[in-house]
Amino acid sequence: MVTNVASFGRSGLADFVLQRVSAVIVGLYALCLVGFFVTTPRMDHAVLAGFFESLPMRAFTTLAVVSLAAHAWIGMWTVGTDYVRRHYFGAGHTVYLGIYLVVCIGLIFVYLLWPLSVVWGLP
Amino acid sequence: MQISLYRFDPDTDESPRTDSLELDLPEGRDLMVLDVLELLKAEDPSIAYRRSCREGVCGSDGINMNGRNGLACITPVSEAAPRGKLTLRPLPGLPVVRDLVVDMSQFYRQYEKIKPWLVNDTAPPARERLQSPEDREKLNGLYECILCACCSTACPSFWWNPDKFVGPAGLLQAYRFLADSRDTATAERLAALEDPFSVFRCRGIMNCVSVCPKGLNPTRAIGKIRSMLLSQGI
Fold first, then answer.
1. Which residues in chain B have Cβ-Cβ distances shorter than 8 Å to A78?
2. What CATH architecture applies to the domain B2-102?
3. At CB < 8 Å, which residues of chain B contact A?
4. Which residue from B160, B197, B233 is facing A2, i.e. has the nearest CB?
5. Of B36, B57, B220, B234, which one's alpha carbon is 20 to 30 angstroms from that of A61?
């Protein structure tokens, strides 16, 4: 078994399943939004607010945003461990990989909290 | 015929170079790329490449021909260079020992990782461990691999993580033993492949399938390993 400090002890199988399950959830959410936009004849703020403020839609949006964050993290980690390596970055490549991953975590955290604060009306 | 040949001797050259050569090929015959190399070597004995059986069995002469990996001995010049210019380079992603000869140590290390031998802890029978024809059938498309490394060195995931990703050749052989009804180490073999790199770094690019000179399908074998891991995990 390959061990890598940057994998944080994760399982490849768990990542594989999580990526696919999260992709299905985000896909269903996108279909839901497209369906809403296509079947709603008149679109204004009140209609949009009414749609997104319902409890099922808030829960679905939360699930979709969390799924997107998980999907993005696995994807960005994979890209980082593919490209940020000794061949390109020399002996200090683990430092660069660490910086890259911290930036990714920060961005994903912001993109996770921002829509959730909007959907749940947090300050 | 115009030929571009990769040349590099780490002992004397600072960096690799490409030699542009002209070669008169005999008319009315479609030579194999290995024949072209033999003709070139007759003119310049310093050209280095591996070869042995010259009939696609030993896997020694895996090289990159016009951007595509394959065995020089069974690749006709007309197929490798349909426009008349032949470019010969070593297999990509492995350190060059000299000219078209690459250091395959990393490839073999990955092959060794998957324990390419039968594991069976039960008492051996008097004569041999038998298989049903149906169980034997499951090994077809797997055991034929000749370890030429054309697939693994065509795989971007192997280029990026040659020390962590087993690669298509190793994984084809890993499934060959997972699929073997006589092997009893299935759980251990799967546990050794469950990390994020060994199997799951395969992105399904399928270069391996496209270049395999034996027509094998490592991507399908990798999919079967993933299915086994999933079944075991659930």
1. 196, 201
2. Roll (3.10)
3. 157, 160-161, 164, 191-201, 226, 229-230, 233
4. B197
5. B234
Token couple for A58:
């808030």
User: Going edge to edge, which strands form the sheet with B85-89?
Assistant: B17-22, B2-7, B85-89, B62-65, B68-71
Q: Among B160, B161, B194, whose Cβ lies nearest the Cβ of A12?
A: B194
How far off is chain A from B132, nearest CA to CA, in Å?
Answer: 32
Helix, strand or coil for residue A102? helix
Q: Which pLDDT band holds residue A85 (cuts at 50, 70, 90)?
A: confident
How confident is the model at residue A4, as a pLDDT? 56
pTM (2 d.p.):
0.89
Q: What pLDDT is recorded for position B161?
A: 92
| Among chain B residues, CA nearest to A19 | B200
Output the pLDDT for position B232: 87
Nearest-Cα residue of chain A relative to residue B194: A12
Q: Is B22 helix (H, G, I), strand (E, B) or coil?
A: strand
Asked casually if ipTM beats, i.e. exceeds, 0.90, the reply is: no
Alpha-carbon distance of B189 to B171, in angstroms, equals 11
Fold of B105-233: Fumarate Reductase Iron-sulfur Protein; Chain B, domain 2 (1.10.1060)
